Amino acid sequence: MVTSLSITHSSKHFPLMFTWKIVSDPIYNYVTFNKEVEEPIVNSILLQRLRYILQLQTAHLVYPGAMHSRFQHSLGVMHLSGVVAQDYTDKIIALYGEEALEGFPARSLVEAARLAGLLHDVGHAAFGHAFEEMVVWKNKKIPPELNNHEKIGVKLVEQLLEDELLKLEKNHDLPHLTEILLELLRENEPSAKILNVYRWIIKDSLYPTDIIDFLRRDSYYTGASEYGYIHHERLYLNTYPLRMKDNYILVLDRTAWGEFREYMVAKAGMYEHVYYHSVNRAFDRVLNEIISRMDSKYNLSDRVLMISTGNPYPYLELTDVFMYKLMMEHALYANDEIGRLCRTIMIDRKPPIRRVGREYILYASKGLTHLKELLKIMFSQQYRERVQKSIYEEVVSAVRERGVDYEDIWIDVLDISPVSKSVLIPSGSSKKPNLKLFLGKKSGREITLDRKVDLLEEGLPLMIIFRAYIARDKYSVELEPVVSKALESSMESVLGLTRREYDEALKNLFQHIDSVEHKSMTM
């Protein structure tokens, strides 16, 4: 195993600058934060409110243990980001000298990476991504600078923490700390090339600390540990920032290629079986409707808009605790539609729809035809909606004679990608995803770039899941094979994907096998 480098001018001296407090953590055993700089941020309203926002919105209705908060996740990302930042800093100085840090002190870079991990989720409101989808993205009044939780988080940091951060960096000899932190959190790439390396630690890379922590943490609390075990230490210890001209790339030592592939599979498995669990998706649909109706009733969008006027506090009230209080009141006392929906989640725990028939999964690994259709559905919203509508109509046609109508059916289409959407989906002038993993070999002070792995060609576990749901009061077990057949038939007619090529290939294979010698094998 390649280990991190030991050098004289090392960021390993960073911990000696501070007094550390220890927090027990089920994932890393212990997480630490320093009293001088990080404790004031941890104790701020921006972090403390995350105690009252669940990491997995409605997953606790399926997995009772999934009651962990975004606060726990944020501490974990801070811890992991600090470990990786110290390691990368030591490697950069050892390979290229301290001047490669472009004038930023090593201690400031490491602390900024830790704080970026701590603060990366502070822009979330109640129910996390569900609120973002139903309020932030759907309201045309929301300005571009507030149109996702990351941009909201940057605004909140600027309004509520920037002055405090500037004082802390001055009092504790951490030059440029605030500048570096904001560069790591903002949407645009940092102007200083070296800062891209530290930005990739938290986001916009193939295995950022944010994703590593939530996979390990979510799998632990849901009880689905078989999907979330990742050898992240081996991944990071074998990753090297390689300077190429005026820019950097991250190179993974080829000895860790197996761990990278395991990570890809683990992430795809968590999305397929946990995040996109069919019952969880049914609850998410109810929650989305509740949020949409409560936005109209309680003007939730206005709380987002108030951030741009310099008043973030109404937005900060929007935690799961705040919303669940409203939902319980409606569930107990209201006879309107919101009350019915709230009772579905708060009391009955029976979503009004349930999955029917088998799911159809479009795998990129099945060949170029499948990959082409998969990418079209992922990248073209218009094509996606056309496919979804065609499947919907065929399924409805198959069940209408059994008393099921259009309003009783829902077709769910889910993307699963083991790389971040910010990496997968092209932006700017790019015409295709740049899914490259750089593999190399380190020997002494030299890093040799071995090859660029095209992850699509290598078999990246991309997939799209198609599921049919039916109104619970219209469900009968006899509909299962009917819907399964209709779903498969619609996939063949809409996408032109059949088993014919596969069946013919197997037939030809066995026609050319004259004999098979059977040997006993010990596996």
Automatic annotation (TrEMBL):
Gene3D superfamilies: Hypothetical protein af1432. It comes from the Archaea. Residues 70-221 form the HD domain. InterPro entries: dGTPase-like, HD/PDEase_dom, HD_domain. PANTHER family: DEOXYNUCLEOSIDE TRIPHOSPHATE TRIPHOSPHOHYDROLASE, DEOXYNUCLEOSIDE TRIPHOSPHATE TRIPHOSPHOHYDROLASE SAMHD1. It holds the Pfam family HD. The keyword Isomerase does not apply. PROSITE patterns: HD. Keywords: Hydrolase. GO terms for molecular function: dGTPase activity. GO terms for biological process: dGTP catabolic process. This is Metal dependent phosphohydrolase. SMART domains: HDc (SM00471). The keyword NAD does not apply.
